[in-house]
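In this supplementary section we document a worked example of the pipeline. Step one takes a protein sequence of length 668 as its only input; no multiple sequence alignment statistics are reported here. Step two produces a three-dimensional model, which step three serialises into structure tokens for compact storage. The input and output of this example are shown verbatim.
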Amino acid sequence: MKLIYTDSLVVGAGLAGLRVAIASKERGLDTLVLSLIPAKRSHSAAAQGGMQASLGNAVKGMGDDEDVHFQDTVKGSDWGCDQEVARMFAHCAPKAVRELANWGVPWSRVSAGPREVIVNAQKVTLQEAEEAHGLINARDFGGTKKWRTCYTADGTGHSLLYAMDNKAISMDIPVHERVEALAIIHDGERCHGVIARCLITGELRAYVAKSTTIATGGYGRIYEVSTNAIICEGIGQALALETGVATLGNMEAVQFHPTAIVPVGILTTEGCRGDGGLLRDKDGYRFMPDYEPEKKELASRDVVSRRMTEHMRKGKGVDSPYGPHLWLDITLLGRKHIETNLREVQEICENFLGIDPAKDWIPVRPTQHYSMGGIRTKATGESPQLKGLFSVGEAACWDMHGFNRLGGNSLAETVVGGMIIGKYVADFCENNSLEINTALAEKFMQQVQTEIDTLVDGDGHENPFELKHAMQRIMMDYVGIFRNGPELDKAVAELKALLERSRKLGIKCKKRHANPELVEALRVKRMLKVALTVACGAAARTESRGAHAREDYPQRNDRDWLNRTLASWPDANALEPVLSYEPLDVMKMELPPGYRGYGIDNAIAHPDTAKREQQITQILAELGKDADRYQRQAALMPFELPPSLQANNERLSDTLQRPSANALGEKS
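The serialised model returned by step three reads:
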């Protein structure tokens, strides 16, 4: 048995994983990263539009701060998020953006003076302040009150990942590439590392560590069409599930992005609509103002996706060999803007559609995009059930997104969550020793070896590729944008049948080293368990909240369903997960449940909401009018952060309001 020891083990080399690794290495800890692919090829590079942080530099961002960002995030989550985590996130986002600038991210910057933009299909001239010249710029995104999304044209994820990986390289953080984790080593109470397989040689290795951080991204590829990279198959979530101890949270919360191109499902960034792009139907009619008169194309993603689907159901979609679609029109932005700020979109359109987006409309329809659910963690990023197991980024249910994520908050979560959780990971490593009997690692190594032996030498006959395709089709047909009881029940039944069939998997290629068929067979059983947690959670949740839209239960039901779904798989032979629920305490919320601002307000109120609102009014009255916003916030819902991240953020508006030295009679 090959044993490799380290202090901080990170599984996944995207932005979130690398940021945790950097935080560990900064403390002088031995740090090691595992990755399916070279780090710079991670799915983080696909993020286009930007990263939310309340800098308030641009004129349309003036007045923005942590309070506004927090409120947008909570409303966007449809009150499903952990509000303390949302506060931690909103507070640290500006720090993360500025840190990234220090590490070499070439953020798009403000140019002082007039600039022409498109707002609500009209050309508008904005006047940027002289004092803002050269500061980090921001664009508009859906579900936000201010222009807050910092960007580098439409290659933000690419820029961030390259800067982050270069930082990790400069710190000599090793990344073991083309290595796949297949089991978590644990004793039921403490995580001790992972068993991983080299995808080239087939060698099994035991990576033993003080802390193990899962940063493997989302599970979009359990669906047939997804904007996710093909490696985003939910294996990290499955490994936690297979411990029988750790829980997954809110797995039914799956977001569909409004504007993926037809038919391949590649994303065109929300920046297209943020910069002024429009959605049109088969008649060329701009339909979103009919549904959402205030926010129009820039309503929250879940809302826009549902409105688009409703419009196509009315027969207003454009017929195509791949089914109906709608049009994304960015021609009004002009060629210069597209070639400057939407270059990736232009290349995608040219290479995959053969069109010029400066002249032609882009065929789009809603497509699976993001996983709000993941490995359930505490605010520190650690699993409540398995000490030493951490998770971060899209792999985790940290839970700042609740049941719907705002555009720009995912890229932000990778680096902000990595920054915060990385410090807690380092604390854990410094405060805990590595104690493990190598027989425990040998036990899990043998389990994985037996699984491989059975696939290679056994008499199984089920085709892993066929099972995977059947699973993806079921998820697409029955667990999509709109859900209902009969279809969800059908999905659960059919997925259970596939899981049972997966116990008789066989492969034709008997190689034990580089063997894609073996890789697929090892993954598909785990993917089916993830798919079942999504389908079972969706079937059980008889309400509509955020991206979880039940046609048979259209109301958001705070009275009965203001909780977080927890899924575990304690019986290895079971065909479905065990579900339990973690209530969200309204009496601890800074922002009690209310109206999101879309459609009709039909929510069923929680009995504590009115009580908490009265309590908040009383707390603020007792503070008095002289209390600043920090004092008010702390009185309503205190939150903790590592000491180095606690300082308040400074903004351009603070600088402009501060008296100059000459005004105070001081010497310049």
